[in-house]
Known about the structure:
mainly alpha
Amino acid sequence: MTLITPGLEEARTDELLLDVHNSLGDLRREFRALKERVEAGEDVSGTELKSKGTDLNTVLVSCQRLETTLAEVRQKRSRIAQGGYALDLDAAGVEVRCALARLRTCASAGRVSE
Length: 114
């Protein structure tokens, strides 16, 4: 039987989301510096601009995925009993069916009612 403890998963996702948020801040500062270089008349290559745009897109996609995961974890948590733990009944059902199958095999019996 599987015991669900979403607090650990939520904390891990929060950490990842914070890392992505920090990366986004870093990229914002890099874009600001790049803008200042352009405004100062420096020659900035299209490759450099494209690279920064790709970096930004990657971080934004990661952020969106993590936010979705975090929302799912929080939704699961809201359905968990007051003690902060719950049983995964789907996994328990699978385990019971597997145990019954092993018993049928061992006993060379036919179908066991479920």
